[in-house]
Amino acid sequence: MTKNASKNGGDLSGGITDSADGSEMISEKLKQLYDSVCDEGISDRFLDLLEKLDAAEKNSSDDGQSS
Questions:
Q1: For burial by CB atoms within 10 Å, which of 2, 20, 38, 57 has the most?
Q2: Residue 65: what are its φ and ψ, rounded to 5°?
Q3: pLDDT(65) > 80
Q4: What is the 3-state composition of the chain as percent helix, strand, coil, each rounded to the nearest 5?
Q5: What are residue 11's phi and psi, to 5 degrees?
Q6: Is residue 46 within 8 Å of residue 39, measured between CB atoms?
Q7: Which of the four pLDDT bands, split at 50, 70 and 90, describes residue 19?
Q8: Are 12 and 6 in contact (CB under 8 A)?
Q9: Is 61 helix (H, G, I), strand (E, B) or coil?
């Protein structure tokens, strides 16, 4: 059996079996996915929830700082 042959007799040379090529392809696909998520807008509903959270945190900290 050769160095590039698997236990079941298959040849592992060529294709995307090279770990450097596979890692490069995975990296590129992950970057594309990340970029597409970054390009998505933030929904008005989510922004409203964030504003409510900020207001609640501000009210909570204001209540604790009164002397």
A1: 57
A2: -100, 0
A3: no
A4: 65, 5, 35
A5: -90, 125
A6: no
A7: confident
A8: yes
A9: helix
Query: What is the per-residue pLDDT for 67?
Result: 47
Residue in the block written with tokens 């996915």:
33
**Six token digits for residue 2:** 């050769």
Q: Considering only residues 8 and 33, tell me which one the structure prediction assigns the higher pLDDT.
A: 33
Query: Is the confidence at residue 38, as pLDDT, over 60?
Result: yes
Amino acid at 7: K
Ramachandran area for residue 14 (φ above 0: left; ψ -120 to 50: alpha; else beta)? left
Whether the CB-CB separation of 4 and 12 falls below 8 Å is answered with yes
